[in-house]
From TrEMBL:
Name of the protein described by the UniProt record: Fatty acyl-AMP ligase
Pfam families xrefs: AMP-binding, AMP-dom_DIP2-like
Keywords: Fatty acid metabolism, Ligase, Lipid metabolism
Gene3D superfamilies assigned: 3.30.300.30, N-terminal domain of ligase-like
PANTHER family with a match to the protein in the record: DISCO-INTERACTING PROTEIN 2 (PTHR22754:SF32), DISCO-INTERACTING PROTEIN 2 DIP2 -RELATED (PTHR22754)
Domain of life: Bacteria
SUPFAM superfamilies, per the entry: Acetyl-CoA synthetase-like
Domain AMP-dependent synthetase/ligase per the UniProt entry, residue ranges: 23-411
GO molecular function: ligase activity
Amino acid sequence: METISEPLPVTRETESFATLLSRWARVFGDEAAVTHLDHRTTADGRADTLTWRELDERVSAVAARLTAVAEPGERAAVLAGQSAEYVVAFLGAIRAGFVAVPLFPPGLPGHAGRLAAALADCAPRVVLTIAAEFDAVRDFTAAPAVIAVDALPAAEPREWPAPDPDAPAYLQYTSGSTRSPAGVVLTHRNVLANARQACTAYGAESRTTSTVSWLPLFHDMGLILGIGAPMAAGLASVLMDPVAFLEQPARWLRALSASPGAISAAPNFAYGYCASRVTEAEKAYLELSRVVSLINGSEPVLPATIAKFQDAFGACGLRPEVHRSSYGLAEATVLVSVTDAGKPPRQVTFDRDRLAAGFAEPAASGTTLVSCGRPAGQRVRITDPVTGEAAAPGEVGEIRVSGPNVGRGYWGQPSAATFNLPPLDPDTGEGWLATGDLGVVFDGELFVTGRLKDLVVVDGRNHYPQDIEQTVEEHPGVRPHSAAAFAIDGDAGETAVVVLERAKDTDVGIAAVTAAVRAAVSAGHGLRLHDVVFLEPGEVPRTSSGKISRARCRESYLDGSLTARRLA
């Protein structure tokens, strides 16, 4: 199979996010750099803004304090909520030559175990937080030093040493949706390459575009969108808390309306959530004609969701071509591929049975996939997951990626089976990253079909869980974006289970919906469900970014904690 690739960006040897901040502070001075819309005290959100000069000075204060308590090269974890102070803390660690570890405060509901695991893995020498969360963070962590970045005095001006481009810039911990958190080691070269790839791909330009994001800053896309791309291209950044979005999704769209030339991103579920929750009265205040790019990624992009969102907000000026379907992962910093600018993402319907057998063949009916476009400055190939040999044209296989944005491995863990796999590039010496994702290249574009670990294999036949989930969620008694399909081991091999939430305000009986779901999955997929577990709204396990976690659903099903809450 022919490898698809794009030209690679050039990164200067001594640059980092922090050195670029100094440059923009000199150029833009008192222009707004980062604004956090705080909805905790006001419905419309109080705007807390730092100019480029203020941000640069605050970052230097953090860097000065860090170098007074520890040595460059140590890990500095950030445990704080979404805020401008988070940006200050993260960039302060970068400027001081520390390895930043973007995490979250102990109070994030349901994720204390993941936080403890990440801290135990990276063993930070210093933890950065804010004064309001200082006591809770100090009590939670065993780090020798805890610093509240919003309580630091200004530092004397000084020159900071140029970074080694191949030194770790930060550890990006995976979401934990498929395994225990692992810290991807990302160098300055990696993250600057990917931030610039993103800026080029999404049409970012200084002073004419800005980023708007409610994605958590400790997630790969949230960090690059909210901090990395703004530092790479001199973009203003507008941040919101994820909870503020979930409470009232119209807040995100109002922020887009107020930010000329906005670029933003969200998982697929968020677009459907907006279309369902934003009222006609709220739409009257939206002006979305100036949005530059709306990135849809991090989970399967569904054609119905794109159509629903466009139908809901087309009258507000939203143009179909701003939808940009993307594929990426933390091991590649974040971005790998994206659909072309200026036209809606391509959709292709493939024969469902042939796709389950590992071959992508267009058909009049079957499974419709949305393209994830072309590489954004790296190379992509499809391979046999076991041998690593190139797949035949039209054959589904594991997606492998090579480029300057691919990380160096997992912190303190074996990485040889995932990173820098052969064949090595003779010019750069770079190998290939095994993503664990399945896909196919069709007419020069990448189509992602699922994850290797998520495949439901029953009676020797492959089933993609997202296909099953989509069928299940077509029933009006099932809450949208709530289903998780997974396999468990049975006496006769693997069997399939679906966990889902009942729709709000439904008067349909659970038994009737269960029977209908079983029948729909049997008719559409030739699959008999071993079990269907109905839960109340909000009870299906999710990751910290709001995505359904199939792995946690499976674990909770097997240990009985899900079935104990089953609705009758």
